[in-house]
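Propose amino acids for all 486 sites.
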């Protein structure tokens, strides 16, 4: 099941895999909607429900008025239509209907949509086909676009030079002055970077402002981040002399957008993990994929504004045949999902794992191409979660190497599920390996065939609850079925 929100198509729609309660609740725009949708997830308030083969589901929901609300959903989007007055998207009725669908059974039988639902579905599907068939076009005025790009590059260059001066002043006055100045100085500098149309620089400056209050050892961390910011500034000011992949990375890091380019990589992609991260008023959803044939990782990003869930949603653990186009830049992790070729398989074995030492080496090589990289996707093979003096670590069962679990993951239920899954024995774990440690996102039990290289079996998501974990109870860690914790 490959989904987008708000009617954005993902090419040819494949037959939908069965929804789970966790996937439905992940679409809720807030906790209140999630709780209200839960109350409508039973057959009681619903009548005239149904679904069709292309992925539509509809029903009438009894409300406080005399007329029931008409709710229809295209799950290949997903896109929603409801006659209720709610401004939330999706509304509680759409969530309740999807929960009813996820429960299975006869509550949502197959059939033909009623006229009121068919009218909306027909119009939406026609718009999707028109968008798919429309020829792509470049800028209406290429020369004007070139001039705008040059003007923006000049503004970013001016902002980078100003930022260099501010970093010089900070180091000349001593890092202790950063703690005394408070957050206001950094916010003012970030605002100047926004004026310079360099949101990437602005975001990094705001991160600098939070470091003096981050606890013991903050001067070292501040100096490291200032050095990386200085490196990004100087890279932008010398971008014409950089190799093409590194130049593309620098453009992305300062905040310039780029389109995916090159031929799509068709592969059988395994959805490894999905989690949401709030970034101001925007929620960013990250989905990790692994290509069975190419051996490549791919990162899909989607975004949701306040009150709306991010666009793309994938059930963790499914494997699907699709084309993926990578964005330019060093490492080429970020990608765009293209056409699908057939329905997804419900489960798939994990990627071939590596030892702890190999994972650290892989992150080191990636840093050589992108010095601003926070982490790198790796699958650890045969590691054991072991408590340490200041948290947890993943110890190589075949050696003495170990990776500390990232501090941000220590308080999450996903860590304890990983420990229970291991039971003191080796497991296979996928996650993000970075300078803050290893953040576990999915695991495979040692008893399942998928827990070894080349085997099959179910994945168990270890994504943390702070990333929009639903209120539903966590399933048993011994289940072979994929259990996303989002």
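Proposal:
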């Amino acid at each position: 099941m490959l989904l987008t929100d708000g009617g954005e198509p993902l090419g040819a729609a494949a037959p939908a895999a069965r929804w789970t309660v966790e996937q439905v609740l992940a679409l809720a725009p807030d906790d209140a909607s999630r709780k209200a949708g839960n109350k409508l997830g039973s057959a009681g308030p619903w009548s005239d429900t149904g679904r069709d083969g292309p992925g539509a589901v509809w029903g009438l929901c009894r409300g406080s008025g005399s007329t029931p609300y008409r709710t229809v959903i295209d799950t290949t989007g997903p896109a929603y239509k409801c006659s209720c007055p709610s401004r939330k998207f999706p509304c509680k009725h759409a969530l309740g209907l999807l929960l009813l669908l996820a429960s299975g059974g006869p509550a949502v039988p197959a059939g033909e949509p009623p006229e009121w639902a068919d009218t909306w579905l027909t119009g939406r599907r026609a718009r999707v086909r028109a968008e798919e068939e429309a020829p792509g076009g470049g800028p209406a005025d290429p020369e004007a676009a070139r001039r705008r790009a040059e003007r923006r590059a000049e503004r970013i260059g001016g902002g980078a030079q100003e930022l260099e001066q501010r970093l010089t002043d900070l180091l000349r006055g001593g890092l202790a002055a950063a703690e005394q100045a408070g957050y206001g100085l950094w916010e003012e500098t970030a605002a100047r970077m926004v004026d310079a149309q360099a949101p990437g620089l602005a975001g990094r400056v705001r991160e600098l402002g939070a470091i003096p209050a981050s606890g013991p050892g903050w001067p070292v961390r501040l100096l490291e981040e200032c050095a990386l910011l200085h490196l990004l500034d100087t890279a932008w000011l010398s971008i014409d002399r950089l190799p093409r992949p590194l130049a593309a990375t620098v453009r992305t890091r300062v905040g310039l957008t780029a389109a995916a380019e090159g031929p799509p990589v068709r592969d059988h992609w395994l959805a490894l993990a999905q989690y949401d991260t709030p970034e101001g008023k925007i929620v960013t959803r990250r989905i990790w994929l692994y290509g069975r044939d190419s051996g490549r990782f791919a990162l899909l990003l989607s975004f949701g504004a306040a009150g709306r869930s991010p666009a793309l949603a994938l059930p963790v653990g499914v494997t699907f045949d699709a084309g993926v186009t990578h964005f330019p830049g060093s490492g080429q992790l970020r990608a765009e999902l293209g056409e699908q070729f057939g329905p997804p398989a419900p489960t798939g074995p994990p990627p071939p794992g590596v030892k702890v030492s190999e994972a650290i080496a892989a992150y080191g090589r990636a840093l050589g191409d992108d010095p601003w990289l926070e982490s790198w996707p790796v699958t650890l093979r045969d590691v054991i979660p072991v408590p340490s003096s200041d948290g947890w670590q993943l110890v190589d069962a075949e050696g003495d190497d170990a990776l500390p679990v990232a501090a941000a993951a220590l308080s999450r239920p996903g860590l304890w599920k990983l420990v229970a899954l291991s039971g003191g024995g080796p497991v296979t774990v996928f996650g993000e390996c970075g300078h803050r440690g290893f953040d576990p996102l999915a695991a495979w039990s040692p008893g399942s065939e998928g827990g070894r290289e080349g085997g099959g079996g179910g994945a168990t998501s270890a994504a943390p609850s702070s990333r929009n974990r639903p209120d539903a109870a966590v399933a048993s860690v011994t289940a072979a079925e994929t259990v996303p914790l989002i």
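Confidence is low (pLDDT under 50) at residues 1-17, 449-486. The two ends are 17 Å apart (CA to CA).
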